[in-house]
Specification:
It is built from 14 helices and three strands. It has 346 residues and is mostly helical. A three-stranded antiparallel sheet has the order 1-2-3, with no helix packed on it. A hairpin with a 5-residue loop joins strand 2 and strand 3. It starts with 20 loop residues before the first helix and ends in a 21-residue tail after the last helix.
Length: 346
């Protein structure tokens, strides 16, 4: 059972009664003491549950052909966990690579989940004497440049929005392209979060930040508010982005569908663009055209560390071509010189 949590309703999650008691304790500690977001804790839950189910099968405590999802782990006790060693962690990483085709980034996340759990058992509660993942290296992740829309493509997207609630969809895409917010941040916006030219956003880990709104964003919000005020079936008085049919706050999936439709209308589908790519686009355009420095961009995007933001320092292909062409030797072509014949050559 997955306990996927809607970030807008953090109290509505499933129980952890299908996990070992100590795992449930760690998850509740992560949520209540560390203040991690429900989405993050849910990721830990899924990773740890998979790890322990693998171990039960790996130690031949169940039939080898029993599907992993059918393995019960809620009765596992601390003695079972104390026996975990580095070799078993390596076996697990090999398993998710071979059997589950997990990419390096996914394996790195799973290892991070284990690190946090075992750190809790050793450093925080003292229930274990040693941490079996201490010296295990994180899988090397290939760094890829973020995919983003060009300036012309961004304008085309805004020009080609076809919707039965135009002001809402135009405002959504305007905020994505200008403010670089995450989709979960956008659907969580309440009207009370808007104060003149600022917008309060709740990001990852329930961290609050203030986003400054430029003229285009302010105008788009005001136009949406004007149309929203005319709705007769409005059920969610707080939410900025609501469904025209139900009057309730839009879901993350619905926003994704609306953006996909807008990309299709603009002839930009099939290029790998998505809601999250609009966040990449905002960051890239701010860096390339707005000359925003890394520290400012870090705050705008809500990154915890500037190293995450540095991926946006990439340059587009045209600028790289221009840089190559600007070399003083770019147009210097030397004809092959014939070597004079000497008596020794003969």
């Amino acid at each position: 059972m997955s306990t996927y949590v809607n970030p807008l309703k953090p109290n509505q999650r499933g129980s952890y009664d299908d996990c070992p008691a100590v795992v449930a304790e760690y998850l509740m500690y992560s949520e209540s003491i560390r203040g991690l977001s429900p989405r993050t804790v849910n990721g830990y839950y899924i990773d740890l549950r998979t790890f322990f189910k693998f171990l039960v099968q790996h130690r031949n405590l169940v039939a080898n052909d029993l599907p992993l999802e059918q393995i019960k782990i809620n009765t596992l006790e601390l003695d079972f966990i104390k026996q975990i060693d580095k070799a078993e962690v390596y076996e697990y990483l090999y398993y998710v690579t071979r059997e589950r085709d997990n990419a390096a980034a996914t394996r790195a996340r799973k290892l991070s989940s284990l690190r946090g759990f075992f750190r809790y058992l050793t450093s925080k509660t003292g229930q274990l004497q040693r941490n079996p993942v201490d010296d295990i290296e994180t899988p090397k992740i290939k760094k890829r440049l973020p995919k983003y829309l060009s300036l012309d493509e961004s304008i085309a997207l805004l020009k080609n929005i076809q919707s039965d609630f135009y002001e809402r969809d135009y405002c959504m895409i305007t905020l994505f392209l200008n403010c670089g917010m995450r989709v979960t941040e956008l659907v969580g916006i309440n009207i009370t979060d808007i104060k003149n030219d600022t917008l309060r956003v709740i990001g990852k880990g329930n961290k609050e930040r203030i986003v400054y709104l430029n003229d285009a964003s302010q105008l788009a919000i005001q136009n949406l508010l004007d149309e929203r005020a005319k709705m007769e079936n409005l059920h969610d008085n707080k939410a900025l982005f609501v469904s025209k049919r139900t009057g309730k706050r839009l879901s993350v999936r619905r926003v994704q569908q609306l953006v996909e439709a807008a990309l299709r209308e603009a002839g930009l589908d099939g290029k790998g663009y998505s809601v999250h790519k609009l966040r990449h686009t905002a960051a890239t355009l701010l860096y390339q055209y707005g000359q925003v420095d890394m520290l400012a961009l870090k705050e705008i995007l809500g990154h915890a560390d500037v190293s995450t933001t540095q991926i946006y320092t990439h340059m587009d292909t045209e600028k790289l071509k221009e840089a190559a062409a600007s070399s003083p030797l770019a147009n210097v072509v030397i004809e092959k010189q014939e070597k004079p014949t000497t008596e020794e050559d003969e």
